[in-house]
């Protein structure tokens, strides 16, 4: 399934200044720059918008810029020729509002179903370098993040093995 990002707007997210980026697909996009310029934070913002989780395994509270009380992420996406606007606003203290096409969205489940995205970091090379046991753990962790049903089945399997 092809997902196109048309536009993304970020404010108060990590070290990124208020940023608006627009694309005119079909274009390949290369993100490059000096260290500590926000490349990883931009990709983390995109991941958070589509999954509700940081790729850095930190809470949303830790993602807010130090000088801000909230962060906002908005993206115009297209999948199967259907435009969709996703937006998230997270305020200190835990208040998060997620909207899909201006409608309140109570779960990322439907977003994940319509926009199935997996983010891989450079750490993926360790999945192939380590022992077979470590490789299995890495692959299982990847599958658990990608498919919640796999995570449930894996827990049941592990419980049966212990018995």
Structural key phrases:
alpha+beta, 5 helices, 25% strand
How would you portray this structure in words?
By secondary structure, the chain is of the alpha+beta class. The protein is 33% helix and 25% strand. It has five helices and six strands. It has helices at 39-51, 109-114, 126-129, 132-146, 148-162, and strands spanning 3-11, 19-22, 70-79, 82-91, 95-100, 103-104. The chain has a six-stranded antiparallel β-sheet, covered by helices on one side. The model has no long low-confidence stretch (mean pLDDT 84).
Concise summary:
The protein has 163 residues and is α+β, with helices and mostly antiparallel strands.
Give the DSSP E fraction (strand runs of 2 or more residues): 25-35%
The helix/strand order is EEHEEEEHHHH
As a percent range, the share of helical residues equals: 25-40%
Shape: globular
Report the total helices: 5
Strand order of the largest sheet: 2-1-3-4-5-6
CA gyration radius, whole angstroms: 17 Å
Q: Could you name the ranges where pLDDT drops below 50 across 5 or more consecutive residues?
A: none
């Amino acid at each position: 399934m092809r997902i196109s990002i048309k536009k993304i707007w970020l404010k108060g997210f990590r070290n990124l200044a208020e940023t608006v980026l627009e694309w005119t697909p079909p274009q390949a996009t290369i993100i490059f720059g000096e260290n500590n310029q926000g490349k990883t934070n931009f990709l983390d913002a995109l991941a958070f918008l589509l999954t509700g989780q940081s790729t850095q395994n930190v809470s949303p509270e830790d993602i807010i810029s130090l000088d801000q009380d909230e962060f906002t992420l908005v993206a115009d996406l297209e999948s199967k020729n259907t435009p969709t606007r996703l937006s998230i606003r997270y305020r200190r203290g835990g208040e998060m509002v997620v909207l899909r096409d201006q409608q309140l969205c109570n779960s990322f489940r439907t977003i994940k179903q319509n926009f199935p995205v997996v983010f891989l970091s450079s750490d993926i090379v360790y999945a192939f370098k380590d022992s077979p046991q470590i490789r299995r753990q890495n692959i299982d962790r990847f599958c658990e993040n990608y498919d919640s049903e796999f995570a449930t089945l894996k827990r049941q399997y592990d419980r049966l093995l212990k018995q």
